[in-house]
Amino acid sequence: MSTGHTTSQVWKVSFKTPITAAEEFATLLSDAFHPASQAVATAEVEEHVSWSVEAYYEEKPDAVQIEKIIRPLAEELDIPLPDVTVEILPDINWVAKSLEGLAPIETDRFFVHGAHDADKCPAARHPLLVDAGEAFGTGHHGTTLGCLKFIEKECQKRRPARVLDLGCGTGLLAIAAAKLTRREVIASDIDPIATRVTRENARMNMVHPLIRTITAKGTDHPDLKAHGPYDLLIANILAGPLAQMAPDVEQQLARGGTLILSGILHEQEQMVLSAYRGQGLFLLDRLRIDEWVTLRLQG
User: Fold this and answer.
1) Are residues 281 and 221 in the same domain?
2) Rounded to whole angstroms, how far apart are CA atoms 231 and 259?
3) Is residue 79's pLDDT more than 80?
4) Distances (CA, A) of 228 to 185, 187, 235
5) Which residue range forms the structural domain that includes residue 291?
6) What pLDDT sits at residue 19?
7) What is the pLDDT of residue 98?
8) Is there a single domain that holds both residue 146 and residue 282?
């Protein structure tokens, strides 16, 4: 959604899910083409127990079709099929509303903001402009924020020559790395929409000459391999895929390279750590934000 939109009807699909499944359901709805969501969000309902998943559409979605999309994941996760609610929202400018609620995020080196706050960036910070219409990768989620902080920490001591953002989403982390290193950063994602959005965001942040996008599953792609091995590899995905990909990820990491992992709940940390320790990596430090943990490892 762009800030040029005025008022229009918006339909909301919502359902509750266990905390461990919320992000997976949200990603699933974000990636679905039919119907195509305009934005997806998650929010805590019951502390440490349940979250809501909300998806927004310009045309009325069919609850049965939504259930058909989420049913396989519910079965895979061995949880009951969530009760899906479809409702029409008041005819107001939802983009403006979302912009009002998207307060800037400030770290040691970055100022993450929407277009409405572009004039508020402190002189000592790198501005990171993110379209408020994007569902993920705005810096407001604990996983993204944790990765940003570790990218800063890594670039304080050296300037990595080869950087990979694996599962780039909106490209925020790749853009942040490019701003600090001023070197080419590879941004890959299985979803062609994600790589397109990454290119658009790179252009908005004026680092598009430094961002190379690759649409690929995992690390097994000739172009991705050709640019490695990587001195800094960032993967903000989900704990299960991170653990499964450990051998492939380790192969793409340069000797002495740094690996930043996130998308991990506290209770999943040991599972992920075990997978990477088994590949010869060791933990440098961890950062916990809300219920999420971000890990920094070295090969």
Assistant:
1) yes
2) 8
3) yes
4) 11, 12, 15
5) 142-298
6) 84
7) 45
8) yes
Structure-block tokens of residue 253? 């990491």
* Cα–Cα distance for residue pair 257/158, rounded to 1 Å: 11
Write out the two tokens for 113: 């903001």
Of 125, 94, 124, 89, nearest in space to 110 by CA:
125
Pair 54, 179 in one domain? no
Give the global pTM. Answer: 0.66
Rounded to the nearest 5 degrees, what angle is found at the Cα of 139, between the Cα atoms of 297 and 54? 115
The residues, ordered by sequence, that sit 6+ positions from 96 with a Cβ below 8 Å of its Cβ are 3
Q: What pLDDT digit, counting tens, does each position of 220-267 carry? A: 889 999 998 999 999 998 888 899 999 999 999 999 999 999 989 888
CB 161 within 8 A of CB 229: no
Region at 193 (left for phi over 0; alpha for psi -120 to 50; beta for the rest): alpha
Distance CA 181, CA 97 (A): 35
The tokens for 242 are 């991170």
Q: Residue 35 is which amino acid? A: P
Beta-bridge partner residues of 111: 106, 127
Q: Would you state the structure tokens that stand for residue 95, as one six-digit string?
A: 């983009």
Q: Which two tokens stand for residue 164?
A: 């990979």
Domain boundary among 72, 98, 124: 98
Question: Could you write out the three-class secondary structure of 95-160?
Answer: HHHHHHHCCCEECCCEEEECHHHHHHCCCCCEEEECCCCCCCCCCCCHHHHHHHHHHHHHHHHCCC
Q: 197: alpha, beta or left, given left = phi > 0 and alpha = psi -120 to 50? A: alpha
